[in-house]
């Protein structure tokens, strides 16, 4: 029987940044786990030559594709292209399908869908509606398509009364940026993995911001994620020891996670980022379909805390993609 797993990931640029290089570690982790599970593996890179990708898939004729494509040409708006190819070729693939992947990748569309479903998410507006900025509120300028906090940092946070900053925003491409209300409060990452009886919500992680000066935005921006020498990186910590957390809030966040999974068609593995306001309202600030599988990432950390090994993680993801337990395969 065919037991070939094809791992596809985004082709790196000539001078890749740290966030781009992260996929290399993910390929190693996935490849090791798949081999432990008894699969043969091949790897391939995906770029804008999609005909080449189609030929590559047809040549290998894999049992399934482990989809690790995060960008194409380092641009997040192309992330769903490979899923369209896999679907066209009728090859099973890991993670979220085409339409949910598109909605999760486009932050504005994701927020529109969450609003339709009654899932709390911060108010937002697009750049042609900057007149809606309330001088009494704080906002954050966000890229519509990018992952890994690319293009997101504390200089993106501004007061609605800052006319100078708003004038600068007007010069930006409205197809690539939007404005979201900045929620002061605690930040949580909640990971979800497919299980035999439905989505399994993993242990909550809280992002803590240590010794941040008064007025400095507490946020997981690009610097905090990738610049190891920065104050933000060294003083931002993930913790699973969550204190002063009311049970009804925890239960509400679990409900939101499961509703996002079911109503938005998410599959395989997902991470939701929340801000908990001072009044106890949990707002979804990001939906990460196919989140990073590197050892330092939030998803793998939550799995480890939940007692799930990398081998077991990959097994669950593959079984969900194939639609049946791995024991049913004759390998």
Can you describe what's shown?
39% of the residues are buried. The chain contains eleven helices and 13 strands. The chain has helices at 18-36, 50-60, 81-89, 98-105, 107-117, 163-169, 222-226, 231-234, 247-263, 298-305, 310-322; strands at residues 4-10, 40-46, 64-68, 124-126, 138-143, 157-159, 177-181, 185-195, 198-201, 205-209, 236-239, 269-277, 282-289. The longest helix has 19 residues, at 18-36. By secondary structure, the chain is α+β, with helices and mostly antiparallel strands. It is globular, with a radius of gyration of 20 Å. Helix content is 34%, strand content 23%. Helix 1 (18-36) crosses helix 11 (310-322).
Helix content: 25-40%
Outline: globular
- CATH homologous superfamily (4th level) name of the largest domain: ATP-grasp fold, B domain
Number of domains: 3
The total strand number stands at 13
Oligomer: single chain
Mean pLDDT score: 93
CATH architecture of the largest domain: 2-Layer Sandwich
Could you please say which CATH topology of the largest domain applies here? D-amino Acid Aminotransferase, Chain A, domain 1
Query: What does the main sheet amount to?
Result: 6 strands, antiparallel
Any idea what the radius of gyration is? Answer: 20 Å
| CATH class descriptor of the largest domain | Alpha Beta
Q: How far is the N terminus from the C terminus? A: 6 Å
Order of helices and strands: EHEHEHHHEEEHEEEEHHEHEEHH
The proportion of residues in beta strands is: 15-25%
Task: Tell me the number of helical segments per DSSP (H or I, 4 or more residues long).
Answer: 11
Uncertain regions spanning at least 5 consecutive residues? none
User: Helix/strand/pairing class, anyone?
Assistant: alpha+beta
């Amino acid at each position: 029987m065919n037991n070939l797993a094809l791992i596809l990931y985004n082709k790196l640029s000539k001078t890749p940044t740290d966030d781009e290089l992260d996929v290399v570690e993910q390929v190693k982790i996935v490849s090791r786990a798949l081999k432990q599970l008894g699969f043969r593996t091949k790897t391939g890179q995906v770029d804008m030559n999609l005909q080449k990708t189609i030929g590559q898939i047809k040549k290998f004729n894999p049992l399934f594709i482990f989809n690790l494509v995060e960008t194409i040409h380092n641009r997040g708006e192309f992330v769903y292209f490979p899923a369209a190819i896999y679907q066209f070729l009728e090859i099973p693939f890991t993670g979220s399908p085409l339409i949910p992947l598109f909605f999760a990748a486009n932050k504005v569309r994701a927020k529109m869908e969450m609003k339709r479903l009654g899932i709390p998410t911060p108010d937002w507006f697009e750049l042609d509606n900057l007149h809606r900025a309330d001088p009494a509120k704080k906002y954050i300028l966000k890229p519509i398509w990018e992952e890994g906090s690319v293009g997101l940092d504390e200089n993106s946070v501004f007061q609605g009364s800052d006319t100078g900053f708003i004038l600068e925003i007007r010069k930006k491409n409205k197809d690539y940026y939007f404005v979201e209300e900045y929620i002061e409060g605690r930040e949580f990452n909640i990971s979800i993995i497919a299980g035999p009886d439905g989505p399994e919500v993993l242990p909550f992680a809280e992002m803590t911001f240590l010794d941040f000066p008064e007025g400095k935005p507490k946020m997981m921006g690009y610097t905090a994620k990738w610049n190891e020498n920065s104050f933000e990186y060294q003083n931002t910590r993930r913790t699973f020891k969550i204190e002063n957390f009311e049970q009804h809030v925890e239960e509400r966040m679990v409900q939101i996670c499961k509703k996002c999974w079911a109503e938005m068609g998410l599959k395989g593995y997902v991470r939701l980022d929340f801000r908990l306001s001072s009044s106890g309202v949990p707002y979804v600030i990001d939906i990460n379909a196919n989140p990073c599988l590197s050892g330092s990432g939030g998803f793998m950390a939550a799995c480890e805390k939940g007692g799930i090994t990398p081998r077991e993680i990959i097994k669950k993801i593959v079984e969900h993609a194939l639609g049946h337990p791995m024991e049913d395969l004759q390998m």
